[in-house]
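Translate sequence into structure tokens.
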Amino acid sequence: MREQVCKYMCPYARFQSAMFDDDTLIVTYDEARGEPRGGRSRKAEVNTKQLGSCIDCSLCVQVCPTGIDIRKGLQYECIGCGVCADVCDTVMDKMGYERGLIKFSTQHGIANNWSRKQVIQHILRPRVIIYAFILTAIILGLLTSLWLRTPFRVDVVRDRGVMARLTDDGMLENVYRLQIMNGTEEIQHYRLNVSGLTGLVLEAEAAKGSKDNEDENHIKTITVKPAEARWLIVDLKIPDGTVESGSHKIQFEIQAVESKETVTEKSIFMVPR
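Result follows.
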């Protein structure tokens, strides 16, 4: 699709039109200097044939990634890449003319024939400073969030198929699905524990070939590969009749063994009537 993406799909032009004024730095064509355009010999001086500096070579159109003619004025398809200005400068050099027929400037700068220094002075105005401050604040906020982010995440989902069930050994069981997401580039080990009810027993389904293990306090250690999201089936059991019926608040505590960071997720343990 090539330039069709820039013309009809890219949102840059819509943002540009909303933030544009006569002192916005854009790629511009100096019409007063370039017109009337026309071909001529390299040895011909400017205005010899009552022509401007533009020799109508159309190279600016040929190199434009969106296929526009910058000589027709500001157009929303322009992405401000400046390729047309570069190729025009090479043509001016070959013809022996002054550079800058196509250049980065402003509409006020072109109309008033401002120098580069004057253009820059008018660019630094309150509107630009406010936009720069907002953009800087967003970048700092993003960097801060990346610096303070937890290198792993945990989601806890209750098994919606069965709220609670009795096992053969007389234990009341609730089933949960835990997703542990390792955001680092190294293998991580996580210790899984649960609290909130006295006598809770935690059992987690181990994956084939994994190095998961469990200590004498029923604290499960889970191994997660780099940038992997691992699902884990967790069974919580409690002796039947030891707690009253209803929903009881519990907490899953997942601690990274290497970094010692801990994530806590709340859930409930259901005891039927």
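Note: The helical segments are 3-9, 12-18, 31-34, 59-63, 83-95, 107-112, 116-123, 126-148.
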